[in-house]
Records
---
Amino acid sequence: MLKPIRQAVILGLDWGSSSIRASILTRDTRHPENVYNEDSIPAHDEHYQKGAFNAALYLDGIGKVYTGEAIDEDREPVPSKPFFSQSPQTGINAIDALLNGLRADATWALVHEGMEEIAKTVFKSIGGFCNGNNELDELYCIDEIGLSYPAHWRLGERTKYEELLRKVIPKESAWVKPDVDISFHVESLASAHRLFSSPRLIGKIMPPSKTPVLVVFLDFGGYTMKSNANDLSYHRVGETFSAFGGTQLWEQQVGIFCRKYVEAETNRPKLSPRQRAECLEMFHREIKKFETSEIEPMHLTYRIPLKEGHLSYSVCLPKHSAENCFWNALAGPIKLAEKKIAEAVTLSSRVKVVLSGGSGKNTVVQARLRSACERLGVSHPYCMNQKLAKEDSWNISRGAAIATANTISVHESMANGAAFGFQRGGYATLNSPEGLRSSWEEEIEVSLDLNGSRSWKRWCGDTTRIKIICDPFLQLPDRKTHLRFSSCCDVVELPQPSKGYWEFELRFAGDGDDLRLVVERGYMGHTGRKIFRHMPTLELPLYYDPSSCCCLIKTDVDDEGYGLLVTETGEIVACPREPTRNHLERGGRPRLGESGNIRKRKRMAPARRGGVGGRQGKAGVKPTGHLPELKPPNYLPKSTRAPVISQFNGSTDGLPSAHLVRETRSMESSRRENSVIPVVSDTVVGRQALSPECGVTNHSFWEQATVAESGP
């Protein structure tokens, strides 16, 4: 008997703070489907839409650790997501104390048991979905999994997440590929991929225009608010940024208030877990009814059972107490969002704000962001949740699957317009509280693109640093000679050159899974007339990262946010956390020992296929320091000054990720409009990041007064 043909699919998984959601994406037709939990009972919990999987644990040691959808109202549930961290902060003092006290080992054993039960429950439903419920259903085989994760997660959390899933995924099954590839995507980027996969939604956000648009994507989730500026070609501009807060913390604040309120009433017994749950369920129903920009007083009721019937009590949150609970939980994320919108306005005259996530549904959050947009002359935020109301909770899981499916080869990325270049920088001692900053030139010539390689010659002083950067879509629709600094991803920092002239050149070597970026270096002495010494060739393995849509280094090193550095011997390590004092005084290289222990990082999932250009490693655990954080120039959007030197405030590592501050000089742009580069391009309609009306003055200053070195 012939085996039924199964369609290859990608699984997208979103492990949220309150629930878990899964989506399937067919590889050939890109048809998305949500995997619904048929056992879910939304009446038990107002946190999430019907069809999601409950993700709460019970760690009191009484009964089952994980009860699935059978909510135990006599026990206090604990969100499971924080337990991917080795030092979780659950927001529940009693649980946090257990995890660090005498009962820590026993409590962690319960955590591990419960997490495994959650994963088994989810994958049991996913297996049933792939096998079909009847003869008419399609049969699926998962050949790749895309996992979303918060921007603040590091190597430990991601590795623990993957190990948990691999432990419960069947080793031999028709519905999942053995040793299935697993890739990782930041939650806010996954949500952006979901949004930009819909032509209908793209049209709503970005009407046809010759002028590029900068999209600020704000995802207000349960525990963190994350944001990134992202364009229709998906390449990210600036690091994602996060602030602690959200509806989960808001709920915790209300729960604390309820407990204290009842304790203050001398004639009432203490609030039991069941009664606390009743109050919080009513709280979630109340906030869903909000229709104004004001926090309203709340009356949360709970019942005390009697031998016959029950007594009903109320917890009254007056307006000022309700407001305190809200702002204690959401002030940080809202203020950070307002700040980033203001920064975006300094970078582009056309800014769009997209709002998503559970807390983004709240009318108070929406009102504050609308006011911020009005003050800055930006149109009101586009509320993604309202446009996808029936399935908005699955945005991230769908986006993780879509981002995983967008994996292409490095050669295909180059054909899409990617270009590499060298960027010169140095340590500058400035009159500032920090005293030391890293400065990087903003005029960067193209050294390698699809059309070939071009050598790059520069003077290097005692503290000069050189790094390779990549612009994902520079050469579309037409060829350019300089990279757009604001749109570039840092790839890797090179060994620190000695004083004198140097010539650098890039080229590709190998093919398929073995594609490498080759770096040729020649020392030309103090005259710069000819090469006196050829340095050892550096060969760096490349892969295409579908989350940031850029070609990056494929490595096992975890940069921990400090970026990647290649040594003279070709070893890839994490950049030093900071330069040592003698490094600055003698202009020497940072010694490997000074950077701390080499931090190993789990490599991106291995290549899936060969073929032309090869499909390189997945998004996996990507380097986290390869994009500078967006920081606006210190001038208004209509200024005609051009930014010429970037300074990373307090950033003393190789690939800076701290605040970006742009120095400006009194240079007038030759164009009619300002010379600020709109860093997001509408490549779907073939627009480039630099609009025809907007020029950039190609000048950079490398003066002794600005950088602590001088030329010959």
---
Amino acid sequence: MNLDTVISQVKRNCNISDARFWGEYSICGLLLRLRELYRSERGLKLWEGIPHKDISDWMSEREVIWKEFQDKDLEDIAIDGTAYRPFEVLRVNTTLEKKNLIYSAGYGLRMKPSFFLADLVSKRTVDGYVVYIAGDEYARDLADYPAMIQDGVIFARVDMTKLLLWGRFEELRVKDPRSPLAFAFSRYGITPDEELSEDVDRKVSMIALSEVETYIHHELGEAIEGQKLGDEWKNLLLDLSGRKAEFFSRGVKDLLSDTSERGMIKYIIENRKEGSLGFYVVFLGGYRKLLFSEIVNAFEKFVKSGDWELIEDARKAGYKKAMGYAERLLSVRRDNPDRAWVSEYIENEIIGEIKTFKP
């Protein structure tokens, strides 16, 4: 097997996906993703600076590629003379695992196709679900999710987890030392006065290996709660695609997954992962933050008392609230076949009664 050939094929599909969907990101979000994709493709360390001219030239080249690929179809991936369709993940990985490689293909927000090819760190089964942990990535698209479940298989990405953490580390020096961010990093031995360096890069790499486990448990919660909600929930998201109501519904499902009995917060509690708890509060945003004020209040008290029961009580309250909204959303869809009306009702009545909020 020629690795470079496989990489180029996966990259091509990544470029086709990005060419079709780059407009779904905000300008700021797109520029940040391009910056990190450039760093990844050039093999630059997170603490290394990027010359402005170099990345400007690269972005111009990427724009040309996107114009060329925007109307192209995703292509098969050929490995050792066998052609695989882009989403035949199981078949592709049957071959790649022998080379300690892992391939992932799935659909993200707004049904954007997402792909990556990486070194395989480990493979195991958790609660009946196969879990792959991916290390250094050779090819990826703009999507930067730390973990995803597809067809009952969880793909967790150390590189993307590290990228999320590094972005927050760069904020650390300007944050209040009493902030959740400072609390989280302090539990891993990192303080606000540390400079960007290769040594800190190594430390953040170790944190990423630990934190990726919490994202695995978000996906476990996602799978378990998804079974409860059934295909009706998937159809709801398709009906609402691209609307504010979709973001709200996904926020409800994410909160349900986080607070599930097998979800992220339960895992944090059971393993007494104080750093992970801090990072959970740090990364809590969008509709999840609007819906889950209980965890913010509980965390403030936890910092002073160390009482994990506070976090458990908040988890239970969050789950009850999220399930209530999930059931209400499904009920509205069930009783009203007009998709546009359902979307407007969710945005004006359900979201409106909580608080006017833009994700």
